[in-house]
């Protein structure tokens, strides 16, 4: 649905704003720096499939927000290709781009960005108002979205009368009111406390499934990335270090930077049976779980008395198994990965 190829973003002096396709990324970075420029994004290749949640991660200043914004040209890339639903996004004229963004894309921000003098319903219907949707229709759509994010009864409240979590629910309802196909979320929960954060992560997953959205989600929290993301793209100083599932990043980190990011990962909640199970159908088993069952679920089943657990694929056919004694090995390699 959305992809970029050899994408660069350079800040600084005008004479630094060029890339030589004949040079390697490293040579281009040196050349830009010699000309007084700053490389915010270097040679990024990335794609997001329809219905997928891609997470962009990295340390502060690694280029996460810049990349998110470059993907929709909210920040203009310096070089590279950008495609959205088959269109060459860099070739779309500004006016059409604005229309495309309004009807197909939407963004949720860290600071909620609500208008303080507008009520909840007034905030949620704003994008529809900008689109020129008639008053009765936009009110109905806004009320539907408010119901969907669990804020019915708060329609006429003002933002300052709501908790942080409720304010972000308004931000989410507003971002979904135009039914965008691409949903961009820039550290949407970093201002919320941990318990509310987990609740909101589940909410994002629920809404994304119910409304079948494609999403790009920025965070610096690996556990949040693992919870909401199908894949994680890890940036360091504007360069893509590794892209993969949370389990792939934990079990096969490309380098020590990736390893450091996964150090705090809640492994028993992220790693699943199919990362460790023995392949094949067991002769006999006590319990069957899905192959995507987390190690925590597997441990609970063994604790419940099972000696052999079978793991089924999406059709329920057993495709692997684990004996009680295998769990210790799995946990040891999970903890030391
Ligand atoms: N308009 C700008 N002019 C010059 N440099 C910029 C500009 N915008 C961003 N940068 C630089 O680009 C780099 C990447 O910034 P960006 O905001 O994308 O990082 P980030 O990974 O999202 O950081 P954080 O987690 O702190 O939000 C930073 O070094 C930043 O200072």
UniProtKB/TrEMBL annotation:
<dbReference type="InterPro" id="IPR027417">
    <property type="entry name" value="P-loop_NTPase"/>
</dbReference>
<dbReference type="GO" id="GO:0005524">
    <property type="term" value="F:ATP binding"/>
</dbReference>
<keyword id="KW-0067">ATP-binding</keyword>
<dbReference type="Pfam" id="PF00005">
    <property type="entry name" value="ABC_tran"/>
</dbReference>
<dbReference type="InterPro" id="IPR017871">
    <property type="entry name" value="ABC_transporter-like_CS"/>
</dbReference>
<protein>
    <submittedName>
        <fullName>Glycine betaine/L-proline ABC transporter ATP-binding protein</fullName>
    </submittedName>
</protein>
<keyword id="KW-0547">Nucleotide-binding</keyword>
<dbReference type="InterPro" id="IPR003439">
    <property type="entry name" value="ABC_transporter-like_ATP-bd"/>
</dbReference>
<feature type="domain" description="ABC transporter">
    <location>
        <begin position="24"/>
        <end position="262"/>
    </location>
</feature>
<comment type="similarity">
    <text>Belongs to the ABC transporter superfamily.</text>
</comment>
<dbReference type="GO" id="GO:0015697">
    <property type="term" value="P:quaternary ammonium group transport"/>
</dbReference>
<keyword id="KW-0813">Transport</keyword>
<dbReference type="InterPro" id="IPR003593">
    <property type="entry name" value="AAA+_ATPase"/>
</dbReference>
<dbReference type="GO" id="GO:0016887">
    <property type="term" value="F:ATP hydrolysis activity"/>
</dbReference>
<dbReference type="InterPro" id="IPR051921">
    <property type="entry name" value="ABC_osmolyte_uptake_ATP-bind"/>
</dbReference>
